[in-house]
Amino acid sequence: MQFYSIRYIVSITLLSCSILGCGSSEKSNREYTYFGGEIVNPNTNYIVLSKADEPGDTILLDRNNRFFHKIENLKEGLYSFKHAPENQLVILEKGDSVLIRLNTLEFDESLVFTGDGARKNNFLIEMYLQNEIERERLRRTDLKLSPTYFKRNQDSLLKPKLVAYNKLTNKCELSPLAKKVTQACFTFDYFTRHELYFHSRYGIGGLDSTMDLPKAFFDYRKDINYSDHDLEKLYSYNRYLNYYFTNTSLSNAKDIKNIYKGRLGSTIHKLDHIDSIIDHPYIKNNLLRRVTTNFLLNSKNNKDSDIVLNHYLSVSSNKKSQRELKKLAKAIARLRPNKVIPDQELISSKGERTKLSALFNKPITALYFWSMESKDHYIRAHKKASYLSALYPEIDFIAINTDDDQTKNWLKTIKRHHYNLGMEYEFKYPKCSSEELVIHSNNKVILVDQEGKIINAKANLFSSVFERQLMQYTRLASLE
Predict the structure, then answer these.
(1) Following DSSP, what letter does each residue of 188-231 receive, concatenated?
(2) Region 261-269: what's the mean pLDDT?
(3) 3-state SS of the chain: helix, strand, coil percent to 5?
(4) Domains and their CATH numbers in the chain
(5) Beta strand 395-401 with 364-370: parallel, antiparallel or unpaired?
(6) Fewer Cβ close by (within 10 Å): the C or N end of the chain?
(7) pLDDT number for residue 468
(8) Which among 186, 273, 188 has a CA at the least distance from the CA of 238?
(9) Average per-residue pLDDT in the chain?
């Protein structure tokens, strides 16, 4: 990596104190911490560096897409750096001088750290990528293994990571904090797989299926701190907490008197369980929010949504999240079947402003959504919509782009791919429209009739049942 400005020559001098990034004798004497780097193919002209729920620092890129940030009185720990829509983690400690380089076309895969503090962070991203590969294999094959073989398989995957961790700590003099975080980044993924395996077997065979689990299957649980401040930002830690509380809520639900049954009852119990176990406000509020959001997005009626929302409000202390979930619940309530879809302003491929309500010309219209930030998705989505459009000519499949301030790039993209320009639109006000139509997933499809009444606001373009739903809705439309 080359930096040509005076500022970056200074930064390179600071960062080159240790080519391996283990640290240097000068590090402990530095009053400041430095974080800089280069973003190749940037999506915006800035990054945001933040810790927990504190206000983040917005760091502007220069004309060469580089940045350099000096931090005084650093709070040591895990930080998130975001370059929309992607984000990753970095361990920052007093005296660190860390440079990153990444290409947004392959954000995680291209991310490399250099300088003092680099080795621990490169280990973090290497484990993150390896965990992603192994999680995919877990879904495909490993969950089908017998309990004994599953445990043996997971133990074998853990061993080389422990070897790599020991090699890191032997070569580099890491702080207790850095040791804790780098070890946690792969051990908690290992723990999460055990929770996933249990949940998979519970779903298939009920709680009795746990009888054939190895005796030491959950031994790790007794040593875990469920309010660990140092790990509050770590993905694998938070993922583990989510699955752990799902499983333990299901396991002891039969012993708890709850006036609510089914998914409603288990969600109420899970919220209470989280509230009783976790003391750390940030960790607790994040988990409560995630559980409640998931319920609201999948709830089939407003009554159950109101019960869960009110219970969430009674245990959450995060006012901002409370306001956001109240707003989400209201938006979902407006998208129930037979409600008229909220009318949104759009821009056509000709640059003309129009309303969503002007597009409903056939018995059924399918609205699907995409972003240029997810290339693989939008290519697959358009192919699927084209295929379904040929099968169901009585349905209009309309693509709506959700990107903010990207009109020129949007037009270039749809023309380059030779998409049907008459079926391509973008939101005039992307953030507001995405909130009102509750677009929390790129795969979401909203089906409406010719009057704009909602048929299904939660369809999934790639679901195995989607085509059956289309067949059912078209038959009903023809009868009407």
Answers:
(1) HHHHHHHHHHHHHHHHHH-GGGGGGS-TTTTGGGGG--TT-GGG
(2) 85
(3) 55, 20, 30
(4) 6-116 (2.60.40.1120), 124-333 (no CATH), 345-479 (3.40.30.10)
(5) parallel
(6) C
(7) 92
(8) 188
(9) 88
Q: In the predicted model, is pLDDT for residue 19 greater than 60?
A: no
**pLDDT for residue 211:** 64
Spatial separation of the C-alpha atoms in residues 327 and 312, rounded to whole Å: 14
Instruction: Enumerate residues 6+ apart whose C-beta is below 8 A from 314.
Output: none
Residue labelled with tokens 């076309």: 105
For 104, other C-beta atoms within 10 Å of its C-beta total: 18
Residues 6+ positions from 479 with CB-CB distance below 8 Å: none
Q: Is the pLDDT of residue 258 over 70?
A: no
Q: Which amino acid is at 26?
A: E
Q: Is 358 exposed, middle or buried (0-12, 13-18, 19+ CB in 10 A)?
A: exposed
Q: Are 47 and 107 in contact (CB under 8 A)?
A: no
Mean pLDDT on 351-355: 95
Nearest-CA neighbor of 149 among 189, 108, 197? 197
Q: Indicate whether this model's pTM tops 0.90.
A: no
Query: Are residues 271 and 292 in contact, defined by beta-carbon separation less than 8 angstroms?
Result: yes
Question: Between the CA atoms of 317, 319, 325 and 327, what dihedral angle is there, to the nearest 10 degrees?
Answer: 160
pLDDT digits 0-9 by tens, 100-129? 999 988 888 889 999 989 999 999 999 999
Tell me the residue length of the chain: 480
Residue 401: closest CA among 332, 353, 348: 348
State residue 316 phi and psi, 5-degree precision: -85, 150
Asked if the bond preceding 214 is cis, omega within 30° of 0, the reply is no
